[in-house]
Amino acid sequence: MAQLKKAQKDMEINVLPVMSLMTILIPTLISMVALGKIAIVEVNLPERSEVAMDSEPPPPDDNALNLTVALTRDYVEIWARGGSLPRVYFKEMWTFRCKVDGDTITYEPSTVSSDNPPKCQNGTMLDAEKYKFSIETIHLWAIHKESEEDPGRVEMSVYSKSDSAYLDGNNEFITSLGDIRDGSVVATLSESSSRRLACGRTAPGVEDICIDGHPAITLRPRSAYDELAKSLIMIHSRFIDLPDADNIIVLADDDTAFDKIINVMDRARDAGFFKINLAKLAGGGGG
Amino acid sequence: MRKSRSFGTGASSLNLNSMMDVMTIVLVFLIKQIDTEGQLVTAAENLVLPNSTSMKVPKEVSLGIVVDQNWVLVDGQQIVNTSVVSEQDSLMVAALDAILSEKREAEKQAKLARGEPDEGGGNVIVQLDKNMSYDVMFKVMATCGISGFTNVAFAVNMINAEE
Questions:
Q1: Range with the poorest average pLDDT among A53-57, A125-129, A149-153, B142-146
Q2: Pick among A9, A258, A277 to test the B interface (most B CBs inside 10 A)
Q3: pTM above 0.90?
Q4: How confident is residue A285, by pLDDT bands cut at 50, 70 and 90?
């Protein structure tokens, strides 16, 4: 009997080599796993680089949409078919992340400069020359202005758990949390996104707005990108039959951050404008 | 009681079975995570790519240009200072154009040697820091076009489009 037990014990698999193998394999695989997947955004090259400088510009086509989005320091403006939509003014805010304590700090761009770089909560200054490269998020808060001189007030909107602005039945942004209740029918800026809101229930066409039984929707400054997206979706659906209905030109100032360009391009592509041209704004814009 | 008697009497061995189970699960999870197609673009170290809802992934190997706060690099080789690009008035970055034209010519010759037609211009993927100015981005992009790399794409971090 004792011999049998001994034999059984001898037959036990020695897992140590396998463990050693795993200990090597797992860190190797972890190093190979890409935490974020890289995508690409394609653009059409600036026309000035392809067209000879002395050549005549093509005559304007009256039947074309000729959609252009101009992004300046203060506003976004859409031009199409020889006219323009009202400017969407915005207030730009920069959120920095301090490497020393991991906290975020938010500044208006006009309040920071290389002489007065952003200061972390523990008093540490960000690099005076390169503080702009520490911006984690650029917020563009849409503001409502009565006139050019009016400083304006920040527009508010109700946002879902997944950070989508809600629209009501008239395709207007919902501006009060009081307008959202169990059973409300809302939409977002995506196509065919109409849904009924509920708390604690999910079903086809029903969105659960609660986390642990509490509503998780928020009222916060409306993004100028959302205003832009709404207008672009409207334009694309209205002029879908035009020959250049998929084309858009994005104009921007020299000092516009690349992140803002990508955000505008995303909104354009999501609205159905797939052929994106980039060009520079002459004269600096900036209102 | 039994425990106290057996304690210290024989050679105790660590039971590794549960550890093996955990490791096996982690291993399977990691293998699943690794894209079987492989990543054709690797994010550069000294920059932060912007987030985008774009779901388009690069399908073929392209020339890589990286523009960080200090340098413009082509395939990892430092070409010109970013501040020089920012300060110049011309749209064409001469140092970048020189190296890109050379690479484009080499690409053409290689295609010719393989008997393939060289159509549609070269492909280039540009990685720019998300806080880089539009001015620098535009000059790099224009230079790519001038030197024959007419299919320009910008690398971005893919974020899941929620709805």
A1: A53-57
A2: A258
A3: no
A4: very low
d(CA A203, CA A179): 22
Subunit contact B56:A48, Cβ cutoff 8 A? no
Give the mean pLDDT per block of 10 residues along chain B (163 residues).
49 74 87 65 82 86 88 91 92 92 90 82 90 93 91 87 42
* Subunit contact A46:B133, Cβ cutoff 8 A: no
Going by their DSSP bridges, the two strands A104-107 and A88-97 should be labelled as antiparallel
**Residue B27's closest CA among B19, B39, B15?**
B19
Residue A216's pLDDT band, with cuts at 50, 70 and 90, is confident
B85 CB contacts (<8 Å, ≥6 apart)? B67, B72, B93, B96, B136, B139, B140
Closest CA to B75 of B50, B49, B107, B51: B107
Quote the strand ranges of A175-215, DSSP E.
Answer: 185-186, 195-198, 206-208, 210-211, 214-215
The secondary structure of residue A17, as a DSSP letter, is H
What average pLDDT is seen over chain A?
Answer: 83
> For residues B123 and B100, what is the distance between their CA atoms, to the nearest angstrom?
11
Are B154 and A266 within 8 A, CB to CB?
no
* Burial of residue B127, with CB atoms counted within 10 A of its CB: 0-12 exposed, 13-18 middle, 19 or more buried: buried
DSSP H helical ranges for A239-257: none
CA distance A14 to chain B (A): 10
DSSP H helices, chain B, are: 2-6, 17-33, 82-87, 94-114, 134-146
The distance of B1 to chain A (nearest Cα, Å) reads 23
Chain A contact set for B26 (CB, 8 A): 26
The amino acid that residue A143 corresponds to is I
Place of tokens 């001189």: A149
Report the alpha-carbon distance of residue A137 to residue B17 in Å, rounded.
Answer: 46
**In angstroms, rounded to a whole number, what is the distance separating the alpha carbons of residues A79 and B1?**
87
